[in-house]
Model the fold of this input.
Amino acid sequence: AYHAADVFCLASRHEPFGIVVLEAWCAACPVVVSRVGGLQSLVCDGDTGLFFEPDADDADQQLAGALQRVYGDTDLRRSLGESGKKTALEQYEWSRISSRLEEIYQIAEAYHSGRKEGA
Done:
């Protein structure tokens, strides 16, 4: 479905991470998302997607404007999709996630071991 879409929109009021954005990116599908939760650190406005403010008085106009902007600009649509795909593959590939998680565990283990010795 992502491959068939011109744009993916995630109009959430709360979103802890946004794995569906990664799924869209893997299909090089440009995204328009709410500026909430984890999406704020996941998406780079104007580079890997476009934001709108879901709680603004004009949220519906912001959302419509962002969607029209992406839909009406082939170069922007392509650029957002390619940049998103690159980000997904470079930053969220499973081997990279596993390595980062292992580093976190090692830091936690070293911290915990240091506390035991000092106790």
User: Anything to note?
Assistant: DSSP finds five helices and three strands in the chain. The first helix runs from residue 19 to 26.
